[in-house]
Amino acid sequence: MNPLNSMWQRLRTRFQRSDNEPDAAPSKTSSHHDQAEQSLRALLEDPKIPDAVRSSLAADFGRLESMLGKLERDELHLAVFGRVSVGKSALANALLGENAFDVGVLHGTTREAMPRPWQEVAGSGVHLIDTPGIDELDGEAREQLANEVASVSDLVVFVVDGDMTTRERDALVQLAQTERPLLIALNKADRYDDDELMRLLTRLREHAKGLVQAEDVVAVSAMPPPVRRVSLDAEGHEQVEMIRQAPNIDALRNRLTDVLTREGQTLSALNASLFAGRLTDAVAQRIVVARRELAAKVIRQYCIAKSIAVALNPIPVADLLAAGTLDAALVMHLARVYGLPITRREAGGLIGTICAQLAALMGAIWGIHLVASALKGISAGMSTVLTATAQGALAWYATEIVGRAADRYLAAGKSWGDQGAKRVVSDIVASLDRDSILREARAEIQRRLRG
To answer: How many CB atoms lie within 10 A of CB 272?
Structure first.
């Protein structure tokens, strides 16, 4: 298991501590925070990341920069997440104590996710984020936004207003996979009597077993309906008033305050580090892809150069020596592509290993190659052109194999892996369409010779 994921799991376990247990040591919390800042800054400023890779991941790097700023400002982000019309905005407003987020009866009032400052907890400023509903009509983009906001928030309150639907259960599982600490708030609890409420909370805890701790499933009433009060005026006439009730969110507020007081800064640091870890993996993958694409172009260039050099060299065997020099240059060029420069001696050794395996697999081809080289010295006119083209095509094919084998070796960090050079070379030979490559090589050689 990833060490950061393990830390998340330990934090979830620590949420179950009783209030009389000691809090995490401030020095350890501060250490997590400082390490996360250093990690994010190092990734943002890493000069080894190619500009093309950085540009292709511009949105992620922008988010990383925002997360670094959040750490530097000691901010914590709390996302309110859930299905349409369960009362997410009303709950966020109740926590804030003001109507900062739109609340409406229309299907899907929340259209964007904007953080609003809530309160300070243990020296950190907590911000609330109200997210679009996860099942809004024509809301695919907003659903994606909600998932993205939740994935970079430090804590998520998943709001429901009854037993979970299949879609809600799926969303809860998806959120849990982001390794975010979750709380479930059963909103509109005022609609149920005490027995119904207990049964519903039990049912929700069953749904969330293994994902959310039982004590992190709480009941709230973010916007209780007004109470009708009838009174008599001085003349004995009935007067009807609708008395607005205060939100009943103490259970959620207390739980949030408890969690954020003890673990807030650590949650923020680990969340940022997890995101940085995912981005580092994405950067590494993009770099590998970019290097592979560049390596493929380099191999093709050397295939063309070697095939033409072999085809144009009239001296028997000398063309093979020239070909060997080009192969060494190819390997050294590929090594620079992967940032693993090697000496000419190392390149020669690598080529020797590859060719030894090729000789065992393709003895007939190398025999033809040598015969064609000899024929060029005693042939003239059309026969020379034909043998030169054939030999150049074979040189192209051989270089393709040498280049791909060297590429595989370098991409693995100068290693043939568990299966060794023999299996790697064998797999490459088996994967190539020799006839197709030879046809392409002959056509390219003839085109360039005519030119």
So the answer is: 25
